[in-house]
Protein: Acyl-CoA dehydrogenase
Organism: Pseudothauera nasutitermitis
Amino acid sequence: MHFDISPKGQDYLNRVKAFIKNEIEPVEAAFWSEVTATCPGGDWRQWQVPAILEELKAKARAQGLWNMFLPDETLGAGLSIKDYALLAEQTGRSLLAPTVFNCNAPDSGNMEVLWRYGSEAQKQRWLMPLLAGEIRSVFCMTEPQVASSDATNMQATAIVEGDEIVLNGRKWWSSGIGDPHAKVAIFMAHTPDASKDRHHQHSMVLVPLDAPGVQIERMVPVFGDYDAPHGHGEVNFSNVRVPLDHFIAGPGMGFEIAQGRLGPGRIHHCMRCIGAAEKALELAIDRGTQRVAFGKPLLSLGGNRERVAEARIAIDQARLLTLFAAWKMDSVGTFAAMGEISAIKVVAPNVLQQVVDFAIQIHGGAGVSRDVPLTAFFSQARSLRLADGPDEVHKSVIAKMEIAKRASHGDR
Ligand SMILES: Cc1cc2nc3c(=O)[nH]c(=O)nc-3n(C[C@H](O)[C@H](O)[C@H](O)COP(=O)(O)OP(=O)(O)OC[C@H]3O[C@@H](n4cnc5c(N)ncnc54)[C@H](O)[C@@H]3O)c2cc1C
């Protein structure tokens, strides 16, 4: 296994680091203050995105720091998953950077779906404006009424009637739907077909968010915060009709596409967690060395130095495991790396949660204020232990594979 970054990846890495330091970090606090001032709570129809974001996007795009997640040489940066992973780590240090580089979830995953599985017409209508950063997209899979960690529970339907698909169902945690630029959803639903097995009974359908019957009912807060100007919506789809060519890759392809979508996306999420954990550790050390109590720097009190060491060990372990998963995906494909992908999806958000918790503690009251990004990192870590499959579901995947391996080897 080789973890070396390619010369091309190294060039991107240097430029991404410099852009974050010189262009994003100086304005990031002001950006979030403006969001707080201009996004009135759950009244998401009033939300605005501060103008500085478009300026930063234009600068990043002009420098070629754009769509770097996409393996396509022309439309993206043509980087391997492992090389891009190291860039994702850097972008995770900032809450704004992924969007500035047009590499943010859920758009990156949705773009990858359209790039891999979309028809030419779908690419022209939706992929190109997404790649240009002109519109935003949403992924609607989770439903409030059923345990959605088991996707076969899904109750929403996508039924073919003549030359149309009729969509019905209620979704929530539809991330990004509060953004005024959100224009399209990928709606996942049940398309019953007695001739197919249970994993070919679900479809992904492209739905313009202004289609009649799409009703965004509210934004769901995360720990009381609406995560503006992005937002997580609860959406009702009531007899929404779209043409047949709005199926992605045809009816019944939902699970197959979902596997392809979630593999690279999990690497990106995990590396962003590692970047956020690095940032949290830096903040903890700075605070702990600069502030004094009982005659000593905070870091020299109690078990704080040991906590720093434990954080370093945990972050490095998580990074190595994630790079191993990325390397395996590059070398033998996403399917063969399923166990490793599940492993990092458990490890990285838990490491971030542990490191941020320490960073909050050593900051005292400031740790839970908005003066430092720690509450946002904590929220990211805690949410990711649920989103894209809760910890327990990924552990059950790993256990199943381990037990099957043992069974196939018999006694030794
Ligand atoms: C901030 C945030 C953003 C999100 N964004 C999106 C999005 O953009 N699009 C989207 O479709 N969804 C999104 N989600 C939803 C997320 O993917 C789901 O919450 C997740 O899949 C779990 O589904 P559920 O909430 O129905 O929990 P349930 O399925 O009800 O599970 C609840 C709990 O049951 C336990 N459990 C479940 N299965 C097992 C098992 N096999 N073994 C042991 N215990 C188990 C786990 O502890 C689990 O946390 C988001 C969620 C959050 C919090």
Summary: The chain has three domains: 7-104, 136-252, 255-409. The pocket of flavin-adenine dinucleotide is lined by residues 106, 139-142, 147-149, 173-175, 222, 232, 383, 386-390, 392-393, 396 (CB under 6 Å). Residues 254-290 form the longest helix (37 residues).
